[in-house]
Structure formats: structure tokens, C-alpha cells
Design brief:
By secondary structure, the chain is mainly alpha-helical. About 65% of the residues lie in helices and about 0% in strands. The longest helix has 23 residues. The radius of gyration is 17 Å and the shape is globular.
Length: about 210
Amino acid sequence: MKDRSYFIEAALRYEELLESGQIISLDAFVAQEPPEVREELRAFLEFNLTLGELDEPAVLSPTEEAAADRVMALAGAAWEREVSGGPLQNLTDLRKARHMTVGRLARHLKLPVDLLARLERGKVRVATIPERLIERLAEALQTTSSVIRAALLAPPPISANARLNAEDGIVEPEEMVVSFAQAFADSAPTEEEYAAWADTLSSARR
């Protein structure tokens, strides 16, 4: 495992690229780094983009501390999967292995279907995903929270449309990566879905 200075240096390089006007996705940047550190680096960069510089001492709020704990757990899960040599599965792989559709899993979790689909596309910042949802996903997919964390960091599947567009040389606008709270709001939840996650969303904002 790389030491902390490597991750800080990588975060600074990524920020410099963005500040210089080069639009590069998090996945594209991480793909240029050594394979053995990509998942852990992605978790680190997710945290850095969410909360700011990590190399400056700061007093974290309870919300920030919770986010830091989530990132550490995510990075640990990714590292365990890396050293174990197990197959790398994303959330879509885990869902399909249980023969569940996106709609069925979303109903079980009382989440908007659009939100779950966005999670599977890797367009929700992992560091903002509530621990409660990770636990609920683990229960629904009959696996462990560590496996879910690793799956959230794994590269998402490439859609058929994306493959066809790539073959045709068509460049589509990249979908923004947003926080869980923003993705939830964007998904136009029903009253039942909002009620099911209201307390969790409220805690995340404090």
C-alpha cells in the first residue's frame, strides 16, 4: 500500500489539471495510476473533492468525521479485495448475481429507481453514501458491507449506448458526479421514499 504522501501528491496533480482547464474525469485520472492503488486512490480523491485539502490540519465537524470514517472504510475494503485477489465486482454485478432488477432492488430499499441506477453508473460521490444504505444493500444482496464498499469503488459497467457511441466516435457530455443528497433530490422521490430516508438525509446535512 502506498504511503499518505503519494495520495496527497496525486490529489494535488488532479487539482492542478482541473484548475488549468483540463476536464478529466476522476475515473480517467485514476486509470493512469498503478493498478494496485487505483481503488484506494479513488476513495482518497472522492474524500478530497468532498471536504477539501487533506494535508492541512483542521478540526472536522461530526459530519466531516463521519465522511472521513466512511472513506477509510471504503479504502480498507478496496485494499482487502486487492490483496485477496478476489474478482472485482461492481454494484451491478452484485445485483445481477442475485437475479434482481434495478426496480425490484430500489423498491426493496425504498429508493427512487433513478437514484439506484445513478449509483450503479458511479455518478454518486462514494464518500457521501450513507452507511445505512451500504448496510441495507449488503442485506438485500446477501453479502457484507465490505463487499458493498468495494463494489461502489469498482469501475461501473459500460452501457451498450456508450459502447456504440465510442465505436462511432461520438463524444457524449459526461454525467456529473453529485452527492447522495443531491442525487436523491434529483430523482424526484415519492412521499414514501422521502419518509424512508428523511432522517438519514437530515443527519448528513448536520
